[in-house]
Amino acid sequence: MPGEREESAVGRTGTDAGAAVPRAGSRARKLGVRLLAVAVLAVVGYLGWQAYGHRVVSGLTAGSPEQPAVAPGPATAPAASAAALAALRERVDNQDREREQLRTALTALKTEFDRETSARQAAVPDSDTLAVVEVEHLLRLASQRLWEARSAASALALLERADTLLAPLTDPGLEPVRAALVADMTALKLAGSVDVEGLYLRLSALQAAIATLNPAPRPVSMPAADGVAPDAAPPSVGFWPRLWSNAGAALRRFSAEHLRVRTLDAPPPALLSRAAEARLRQYLELLLSQAQLAVLARQERIYRDSLGRAVQLLDAHFGFDPRTPALRAELVGLQTEPVALTLPDISSSRERVREYLARDQQRRAGAAPR
Description:
Mean pLDDT: 76
Number of strands: 0
Radius of gyration: 64 Å
Order of helices and strands: HHHHHHHHHHH
Low-confidence stretches: 1-22, 63-70, 218-232
Helix content: over 70%
Number of helices: 11
Strand content: under 5%
Structural class: mainly alpha
């Protein structure tokens, strides 16, 4: 029994030794496979990294002329990287130059803008200059009113407004302007005035009155009996006395309407028909209308001639109307009214204003920065 145990022990030992030898060989193979896999992975990773770098470089240099594609390899990879880096440096340099050019242009533009702003601020007139400009406009309106409307009163009102604007100004250069303005105002006050509206309306009223005049003598009314009121009832008379009285009244009425009695006091009036009377009234109205137009045009000779001719026609053909003396006196009074005025020259104040504005503009132009 002891011998069998020893043999079995020896047999197991041999078996274990034979099994240990193959186990050690399998471990070496596994280690080699692992090393080979690591090497393959390293090669694949290196190639992948190179491909990624090439793709990045090609994306950055997409705007540059295309180069013939070269398969990346261990020898061409550094050259491709150097070319991509050179292209990037060139692009950065171009951007730097463009940025510098833009900065220079922006600086020049800002300098030009500041210069123009300073020039505009220097050219803007102050409040005193604006007041003088308004005065020049008022003087222009005054000259227009004086020579077109022939109205000294309206021109004087405009000059007074201009003097009110110049009064608070303290610039010594405005003293000649105001002196000329006061001189022109005094000349306008001494020129007098013409009531154009009043003369025109008075002539219109005379036209309406002349249209109602009667150039023929009117029937003479019988005077009332002594001590008897005109409205009292006539006393009762017989048939024959009443017939005789009516015949006498009819005869006197016929004589007054159809006969003219000459006297030594005045020349006899002319006998006119109804059409001639209408033409005479129309001619008188035309003479007064001509006088109205002469008032508006300041034509004194035409005005006085028209009124004088109207007075002559009233005396010759309307002497029998009781309103004729009043109309004649009104026409004679209108003949004495002044129509034309000697208008003064008010251009001196306007010239002084223009000279002041020219000097002020030169001063501001000289003060503006170049």
